[in-house]
Amino acid sequence: MSLIMLAVSTCICKALDGKTLAGSRVLESDPTALRFKDDGTAETPVEGPFVNVFVHESEVTGDYGLFRNGTLEITLVTGVTASMWATDKQTGESTLEGVAFARTTGSMDRLLNLLHRQIVMALSDETDPWAVLFRSLVPSLSKVERIGVVSMENGQRLAARQAKISGDAIDDPKLDDIDEFYAAIEAEEGAVTPPAKPYAKFLWLLHQSEQPQDRVLETEILSVMNGGAVSWSAMLEEMGLTQAGMTALGIGPVDWDNPDQVVDAAFLNGAALTGDG
User: Fold this and answer.
1) What are phi and psi of 150, to 5 degrees?
2) C-alpha torsion angle, residues 17, 19, 25, 26 (rounded to 10)
3) Cβ 101 vs Cβ 58: under 8 Å
4) Inter-residue contact 277 to 253 (CB < 8 Å)
5) For the CA atoms of the chain, what is the radius of gyration?
6) Backbone φ, ψ for residue 233 (5° rounding)
7) Residues 42, 160 contacting (CB under 8 angstroms)
8) CB-based contact 41:153 (threshold 8 Å)
9) CA–CA dist 60, 78 (Å, integer)
10) What is the pLDDT of residues 20-29, one digit of tens each?
11) Fewer CB atoms inside 10 Å of the end CB: C or N, the chain?
């Protein structure tokens, strides 16, 4: 995972929040939102139409350099089930939040088409700072692939769609790329010039946010860029995981009193050795 991939994922989630039929159900790298079983059927625990954002892959060829991100793969997974419809007790009609479609497989597919159009519009918004920043981080899009999934499990219909977006991302930031951020922080109130460089602007938007999680992310990114160790307590809060959950994923601190964890986490995942827990 690179700092640019982290920023891209954050910007997409921020840009989509409340802008589509998914409402606030914009998930970031949630592997539980849509599960595929061994028999090929799919299920979801989410209670309404959702968008799940994954930015996990990039590829660099040629004169790559460790700070380059190259071609970034962005995956947007959307889903809706028949159980998400509510039945009006007086009229007997079934409707879904935001639309009046009937509870049919065709309606579910129509809803996903509308939702994907809303995603395109939200990410193309010239007035939303997160959408504008997303396009600065990935200024060139080269490929879009869309595939659909329809599943039936115990009589429950589920429709999902996946959009894969490929684009050339800017390089990971170096310290001099965020000078504008520090300048804005140090400026007197009323004389602040917002940063223009993409990553400095990303940090500035996090700093300006009223959401505590954004300020935690800002702090941890600056710590990493300045060579400091990541605070695992802050990471727990930012990621919404328990310490046990982070350790199970191989990204948490090592419990040196647990021999199995020392072997599994410390020797197989050297990054865990830097934990402060």
Assistant:
1) -125, 130
2) -50
3) no
4) yes
5) 21
6) -65, -35
7) yes
8) yes
9) 28
10) 999 999 999 9
11) N
CA 93-94-99 angle, to 5 degrees, is 115
209-220 burial string, b = 16+ CB within 10 Å, else e? eeeeebbbbbbb
CB 170, CB 201: distance < 8 Å:
no
- Reading the block at residue 6, the tokens are 């982290």
Does residue 239 carry a pLDDT above 60? no
Q: How many residues does the chain have?
A: 277
Interval 54-93: pLDDT, tens: 998 888 877 667 888 989 999 999 988 877 777 767 777 7
SS3 of residue 57 by DSSP:
strand
3-state helix, strand, coil in the chain (%, to 5): 40, 20, 40
CA distance 257 to 188: 49
pLDDT at 17: 96
CA 145 to chain centre: 18
Question: How far apart (Å, rounded) are the C-alpha atoms in residues 125 and 74?
Answer: 18
Tokens 């930031």 sit on residue: 173
Could you say which DSSP state residue 189 is in?
T
